[in-house]
From TrEMBL:
InterPro entries: DctP_fam (IPR018389), TRAP_DctP (IPR004682), TRAP_DctP_sf (IPR038404). GO terms for cellular component: outer membrane-bounded periplasmic space. CDD domains: PBP2_TRAP_SBP_like_3 (cd13671). Residues 1-21 form the signal peptide. GO terms for biological process: transmembrane transport. This is TRAP dicarboxylate transporter, DctP subunit. GO terms for molecular function: carbohydrate binding.
Amino acid sequence: MKGKKLLVAALSLFVAGSLLVSGCGSKSGSQGDKKTEGAKYTWRLAETHPPDYPTTMGDKKFAELVYERTNGRIKIEVFPSGQLGEEKAVIEQVQLGAIELTRVNASPLAEFNKNFGVLSLPYIFDNDTHLWKFLQGDAGNKLLDSLEKSKMKGLAYYDSGARSFYARKPLNSIDDLKGLKIRVQQSKINMDMIAALGASATPMPYGEVFSALQTGVIDAAENNYPSYFSSNHYQVAKYYILDKHQRTPEVLLISKTAWDKLSDEDKKIIKQAALDSVAFQREAWAKYEKDAEAKLRAAGVTITEVKDVKPWQDAVKSVIDKYRDEYKEMLDAIDQARK
Ligand code: GTR
């Protein structure tokens, strides 16, 4: 008798426990292991930039399309301004499945999946047309797919323009970089590039760059017009030289843990929504880039054109040579995309 009572008590505890678990599941996780088409999720997307920045606008467009196309079943909440952490830490969280989605730059991603390094090799793309032809071709898609072995699933590329150097002191030519302490994104290729330019590389999370420039811990950094502007770095490093050394794109991705929970139908919806948000993001990018340039000029930033890029390309050629074998296949595809 006593044993039976105990059994009943244990059973009801078990039932209550499972109800609790499935209750949570329908709010923010999977409904058991079944990949039902009706599963509901509320997922987080980590973004380092502020709400009005073009990548954030792309993220929001993507979230909106997913919400519409799943009739509100899959809700993606965009957390801008680095609220969920700096890029490297966020990627680690995405690998663990603790953060479901993020938009990051391909440069820090290369530390988690070597293939992505090819995208930050200096002067590897002639212009945006060349870059996008590669990204949207077979090799670009394969590259996104290769993230699966790094516990992520690549969804789409976003625009990030071209990166150039800026410093606290005038930058009139490549020689002015010599000996400077230059902040780079946390990736090995970037460090090699700075060394090849005769400067010293300081890898550092994006969110720390403003005060490092302000206090003189570093002399210089590098980025596209939109980031240079929106981060306010231009207020403490007023000299920008348009050397356009990299065209490292942005990547929208989902944790493999989250991806594997989805039904095939939902996978298609998410992938397509990501691809459909690209045109919107690229338009927003073009507009923001122009506005940023105008505002930078109005704020009195000195913008120096580079008439001949050859000395810059020559200086960093050793970096490409160093990685030529490793990236042979993709470098061939990049050459093809030029034609
Ligand atoms: C920006 C990029 C960010 C971040 C940043 C950086 O252009 O959009 O994701 O990588 O550069 O320099 O850290």
